[in-house]
Specification:
Elements lengths: L1 H14 L1 H12 L29 E5 L3 H17 L4 E6 L2 H7 L8 E4 L5 H11 L3 E5 L5 H10 L3 E6 L3 H9 L1 H9 L3 E4 L2 H9 L4 E4 L11 H13 L4 E7 L3 H12 L14 H4 L3 E6 L5 H10 L4 E3 L12 E3 L6 H7 L2 E4 L12 H5 L4 E3 L7 H9 L3 E3 L3 H12 L2 H17 L3 H16 L6
Parallel strand pairs: 1-2, 1-4, 2-3, 4-5, 5-6, 6-7, 8-9, 8-12, 9-11, 10-11, 12-13, 13-14
Helix pairs in contact: 3-4, 3-19, 5-6, 6-8, 7-8, 10-14
Length: 447
């Protein structure tokens, strides 16, 4: 039965390859990175240097997108410290993930796209690189990838693993396909006890609960210092909309229209002093770079003056909204903010990572939808580093009030820093588990 299920799944993916190519061409119009090295997605690697086997073990890490790549960077730093000489094989599924991953490469490392999950592409990938082991970050489970690694005797693990209730329900509905895939992992190292319980329920062998790697991230001190200098030079508190997703900016603009006298769509409002309309400086950072221009148009259509980060000189320009249209500068934006609204949590999208905000000492106000980071959200609320509100209107009110209260925001900022410090250690524990698995695969007894 399992073989038949996998064969039917593989046939469906093989037939879907033209659709994948069409999707890549469409995405490449706005994100050129999707047009790079397309044959790699099908397990074809022309022009890559040969893997001559020199040096330490080749450790494969798959980080599908930007968030997973940043988590992988935290683990990789610890792995390089504990396993000197290791070589990295880094794979991704998105253009933003691949661009971020380029920063992690050292001589001898290789970066390619994740193979499309057909038996042929997976087989060519494994034969080409022959990794000593594979590490899938957070949620990425692909049936043929798991089956191919088992056949090739490549230990494959799920690190920083999380599984929300919605995903568990989906996995249980497709148990004929998903259960063998989860069971085929050599190990799963969960973020939380709840994640561990759900992973076991779908068939995974949970070998440890290590916490969230993202607590071990150290935000750029230079970016934070620059951000704080800029906010201190202003004359109003700064509220950040952090990593917003589609639909949330419109929700925020509607709240602003109700609270402050914005101009009708398409009509300039330059004549009205900013301070007379809004008591805080808004800083807006969309989650996906392909939406920067779209968000700019939304704000301008509402009559707001917008200053883009990409056009700033030595300091932000005066405007109703500062638009963070850059990558890799979240520490700068959190440093600029007195309080932040958490993107992805005001629409049913699961929320974004709040740990980075807390690590920068930026208090967070979140909506009801944080199922992708449920445990981190709960812990932050319990620690007094974040608060939850019913919706965008309540969020704008809460963040504005917090930003205008220096004593309360300072106390909450201190709780943010204490919260992140208390939950560090996942990177070291995960790296140690990787080394134990490598030793076992090489025939050495564990320490």
């Amino acid at each position: 039965m399992q073989r038949l299920a996998l064969a039917l799944y593989s046939l469906a993916l093989w037939l879907a390859q033209p659709l994948l190519l069409r999707k890549l061409r469409r995405r490449a119009r706005t994100e050129p990175g999707y047009a790079v090295a397309v044959p790699e997605r099908f397990g074809r690697y022309r022009g890559l240097p040969p893997m001559d086997g020199q040096g330490g073990p080749l450790v494969w890490i798959h980080a599908v997108s930007l968030g997973e790549t940043r988590a992988a960077a935290i683990l990789l730093k610890e792995l390089r410290a504990q396993l000197p000489g290791m070589r990295l094989l880094l794979t991704h599924g998105t253009a933003t993930g691949r661009a971020e991953g380029e920063k992690l490469l050292q001589p001898g490392d290789v970066q390619v796209w994740q193979p499309w999950d057909t038996p042929g592409a997976v087989r060519r990938f494994l034969r080409r690189f022959r990794p000593a082991m594979g590490i899938l970050m957070e949620t990425e489970i692909w049936p043929n990838l798991v089956a191919g690694c088992r056949a090739a005797r490549v230990p494959l693990v799920l690190a920083n693993a999380r599984l929300n209730e919605k995903s568990r329900a989906g996995a249980r509905r497709l148990a004929w396909l998903s259960r063998p895939a989860y069971a085929g992992l050599a190990a799963a190292w969960a973020q939380t006890g709840q994640d561990a319980e759900r992973l076991r329920d779908v068939g995974a062998r949970v070998a440890g609960v290590f916490g969230n790697l993202k607590f071990d991230a150290l935000p750029s001190a230079a970016q934070q210092a620059q951000g704080r200098a800029w906010r201190e030079a202003g004359d109003r508190p700064v509220v950040l909309l952090a990593s917003t997703r589609e639909g949330e900016e419109a929700m925020w603009l509607e709240v602003l229209r109700q609270k402050w006298p914005l101009a009708p769509a398409g009509q300039s409002q330059v004549a009205i002093e900013t301070e007379a309309r809004m008591p805080v400086q808004w800083l807006l950072v969309p989650r996906h770079p392909q939406r920067f221009d779209e968000v700019l148009r939304l704000c301008e259509a509402a009559g707001l003056r917008v200053s883009r980060r990409s056009q700033w000189g030595p300091a932000p320009q005066q405007a109703d909204v500062w638009l963070g249209d850059s990558l890799g500068e979240m520490a700068l934006y959190y440093g600029m903010a007195h309080a932040a609204l958490l993107g992805g949590s005001f629409a049913p999208l699961g929320g974004q990572n709040l740990i980075e905000a807390a690590a920068c000492g930026c208090p967070v106000v979140m909506g009801q939808h944080t199922f992708n980071f449920a445990e981190a959200a709960r812990l932050a609320i319990d620690a007094g580093a974040a608060e939850r509100v019913a919706g965008m209107a309540e969020g704008v009110a809460a963040a504005t009030a917090l930003a205008q209260d220096p004593q309360r925001r300072a106390a909450q900022a201190a709780r943010c820093l204490a919260f992140t410090q208390a939950h560090r250690g996942a990177a070291r524990a995960t790296a140690r588990a990787v080394l134990e698995l490598l030793r076992a695969a090489e025939g050495h007894p564990p320490n």
